[in-house]
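Email to the structure team, subject: EEP domain-containing protein model.

Hi all, the expression group asked for a predicted structure before they design truncation constructs. Nothing fancy, just the tokens so they can compare against earlier work. One-line instruction: predict EEP domain-containing protein, return tokens.
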Amino acid sequence: MTKSIRVVSYNIHKGFTHFNRRMVIHDLRERLRSLQADVVFLQEVQGSHATHGGRWHDWPSAPQYEFLADEVWSDFAYGKNAVYDHGHHGNAILSRYPIVASENLDVSAHAFESRGLLHAQIAVPGLAAPVHLMCVHLALFEHSRQRQLAMLIKRVHETVPDTSPLIIAGDFNDWRGQAGRKFATELGLEEAFMSVHGQTAKSFPAHFPLLSLDRIYVRGWRVVNAQVLQAGDGWHRSDHAALLATLELE
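Reply from the structure team: attached below.
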């Protein structure tokens, strides 16, 4: 029987709309649930914030990754990346399948821009080996991104067997696409939107996407479909658009 998996990647902007005009984490949770995804890759997830609870009466008491996962995604992993006096944020992976291992790596290129690589493994029924998942949010500057992609390549070579299914998703900030192509070639990856549409998805800014910042890379999967969840469809809940892909094991 063919095994398929439905994945979402979304930079949620800490649960706020563009320019932090409105807090929308509750609505965002309902919209994510409506997608019926098996695995969700999230960036800019607020793990803790000391003052938001006083400003917003319905600010969740639980960390955002727990609040979003509640009753739908049984397992989750969080990587604390940016830490400040009043809280911290980072990447998160939500999964319907058991997470059997997870590790967060500091891939910050300099002290002024904290970035992380969250690596998790999930046990999918019917598969002998775990599926490897990596959630990333790379730097704004190209030189820093190149260093981070080199660390990501090293991580895959050292920890992911060539025969294991792999999904790497997140906000790559690679609007020119050059670093992404080299990275994919080095690891034998396929970009989901490139596979289906012949080009990467335009995902930023969400209200009028012009730049291709977000990606879903896969190895050992066939991409069945891939789509951008547009603001016009009611997905104007962050400064990024969400990406959705359905994959089947090759």
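The longest strand covers residues 39-49. Residues 142-159 form the longest helix (18 residues). Ping us if the truncation boundaries need rechecking.
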